[in-house]
Structures are given as C-alpha cells and as structure tokens.
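ok so for the tutorial part 2 we go from a plain amino acid sequence to predicted structure tokens. step 1 is just haveing the sequence, like this:
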Amino acid sequence: MSSTQILINADVDKKLINRKDIGIQILCFDITHFSQNIQFVLCSVAVFFFYLLYGYMQELLFTLDGFKPMGWYLTLVQFAYYSLFGWLETKLKRESTRRIPMKTYFVLALLTLGTMGFSNSSLGYLNYPTQVIFKCCKLIPVMIGSVLLQSKRYGFLDVSAVVCMCVGLVFFTLADSQVSPIFDVIGVVMISCALLCDAVIGNVQEKSMKSYKASNTEVVLYSYAIGFAYLFIILALTNNLFAGVAFFAKHPVETYGYAFIFSATGYLGIQIVLTLVRTCGALAAATVTTARKAVTIALSFLAFTKPFTIQYFWAGCIVVLGIYLSVLSKRHKNFGVRDVVQFTDKIKGFVVKPKRKIITSV
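step 2 — the prediction. this is what the tokens look like for a chain of 362 residues:
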C-alpha cells in the first residue's frame, strides 16, 4: 500500500482523531501530549527518514550485477515481509476479525500486485528519478478514467495540473532517453501500468473500508498475503521463481538483507504517513510526501552515479507545479478562469503603479 493510498484510506478513520481515548503514536512512542506543530515536525522528520532510506535501498538493490530481471522476485520477497509485518501488527493490536469479504481482497491483491510489481520491475529499465516523477503523476490516469467512465467534469485548476504534469513528464522522459544508458521503453510501459493499477486501487480500498469499517492493518495483511500467493504461482509457472531463489541465494546479505530494510522502511513509512494525516490532515501529508519525493530525486543523483542535464530540473519543476495546482484545487474547488484574470489584475496593480495626474494652477 503506497502513501498515496494511505491518504485516501485515512479519511475512513477521521472520526477517531477527536476521541480522547485514542493516543497518537509514532511507532511505539506516544506524542499525544505534544502540540500539533511539534507533532507535525516529528511526523515529517520520520516520513523523510523512512522513505528516503526506502528509496535508497530500492535503487541500491538494482545496482547489483544481474539484478535487472529480479524485479518480480523482489516484489515476492517484499510481499512476504509485508505479510509478516501485518500479521505481527494484528497480533499486537489483537485484531482477529476480518471485515472485508475475501472476494474483495482477491481484487485488491491483484491491483496491489500490479502496482508494486510493475513499479519495482520498471527500475531495471529506467532511472530511479524518472520512476519517481511518473509516480508523482497519478492524477493523470485518475482524471482520464473519471472522464471516460463517469463523465466527470473537472475545474480549471485540475485541468491545468494535468497539463503541467503531462508536459513535465514528457520532457523528463525525453531527457532520460537521451542521457541515460539504461533507458528502455519497456520501463515506461511498466511504470504506466503501475500507475493505472494505483489509480484504481485507491477507489476500491476507499469504498471497501468505508462500507465494512475495516482497519488499515487488516487491508495490508490480506492484500499482501493474497498477492504473495498470486505472485508465487505466477513465478513458479514461468520458471522465474527458481531463478530468483538461485540469484538471491548467491548474495543473501545484499538481497534478502537489503530487501528486509527496503520492506521495513516502506511499511513503517506507511504508518507514519497515516499518523501525519490523522494529526495534521491530508493536505499537510500530501505536501510532506511531495517534498520527500523531490528530495529523493536530488539524493538519487548525488548518491548514485548517473548523467544529469538541466532538462531534468526544469521538467521536474513543471511536474511539481502541476502537483501544487492539484493540491490548490482541493482547497478552492470553484476556482476558475475569472479568478485567474482577477488575480492577474491584482498583480499588475502591484507591479504597475498608476500614473499620477499633474494639476497645474492657473
């Protein structure tokens, strides 16, 4: 489950925030007695720490010789770790009752498999910054699907956000194709498939959790456990399971060890984002996670040797502008072209001072 999906799912538990008997925790540390500003800082620092380490470990795994075709087996290992973490969490919280029907989990597990599997495998064909930029543009398939399937209409800011994301995405990908030695169109197809699955899974999760009042821990456990079973069968039938086992057995520390840190930081990062949503709201959490992605891209260029061009920078800025417009649209849903004109006129009024009339006495 990604941090974006958590922002959606957290709305289900919004009523719990105002209950005095529910404490606010970062992992095992109670931060209920701190002010909201302190809670925001602590959660933000934790989000940056876990997700920056998550991104670093993910990219580090794909720097190993011969790891390129191991993306799906890495997903299998990650699903195993997530299932274990989810099971341990249910035992600690003493949650024993499943609320969502299994048939719904069969669909959720398949979508989770597509999201995580295609995302991991795409790193064998794309630079990590390019993958992150694509994942920032989830709004594009969401909006296209809503327009085609639900005939939904969007406002000026939403359309502008998608245009900025599309333009930035195109130029960032073009820059990657020109300077990156590992660029492959297959990677673009894979990360696009991951985005499509990610766009669908959020709606399914939101509807299921609201209907059955299921906890986040339950959804994580069953989605990843069933997804593990799916992927295990697929890899066994395609003979990729044994190739993955053999490769990981040759380098157990660099593979299973790195994958454990990668999975643990991702799982803990999810919990921190959920805490951030509950304490400060979805908008603040979206801002923090977006800033984290920008820092992740910068650190990727610093930590791992890869070619750089200025086109990466300004293309990324266009995507960030699109994300900002998307966040702004959620706060000002009636924002339109007339508001843009009025805003422009105000700016002109500050910049261009009106000329004073000179009155001469006769």
